[in-house]
Amino acid sequence: MLEILLSHIKNKIEITEKDKSELQQFFTYKKLRKKQYLLQEGEVCKYLSFVSKGLLKSYILDEKGSEHINMFAFEGWWISDFNSFINQEKAVLNIDAIEETELLMITREDYENLMVKIPLMDRYFRILYQNSLVTKDYRLIVSNSFTAEEKYTQFAQKNADIIQRIPHNLIASYLGLAPETVSRIRKKISFK
Hints:
This protein is 47% helix and 24% strand. It contains eight helices and six strands. It has helices spanning 2-10, 17-23, 82-87, 108-117, 120-145, 148-158, 168-175, 179-191; strands at 28-32, 37-39, 47-61, 67-74, 78-79, 94-107. Strands 1, 2, 3, 4, 5 and 6 form a six-stranded antiparallel beta sheet that branches.
């Protein structure tokens, strides 16, 4: 399982064999069943989690109990309620497994110790945070200025490797569209 994380790290930075072996001590393994929570709103997020296998969703619930998905995390992605994790405040997000999932998890204390013991990891996480900001900015632009069909098409192109793993009602929630709209768009695209 650590190999997937190491591969992800090596795609961003150079890491020594010594650093690779030391990295193991900072992470714990967790397995989630389908629909099992990793985090519920109101809890303090104790872990930053790396997805080795599986698929998760991060979302808020509105007053009617409807999900508003803000992120999908699959193999090679990190997930948490980052504000809760960093500031040790109550989480506003729920995170649960869409399919059986395996995670490597790091606590806030071990995250800080990791940066001290393996300083290159600071650079690795900085690169991830920069990429995350770019992605969130682009998602806001898409959300505010693309048509429903453009939103779906853009999502399908960027996520071609996982789109078949995500139920269309969850894609609709992520895109801020009605499930019927996503079904109509999918039919229209399949006829082209």
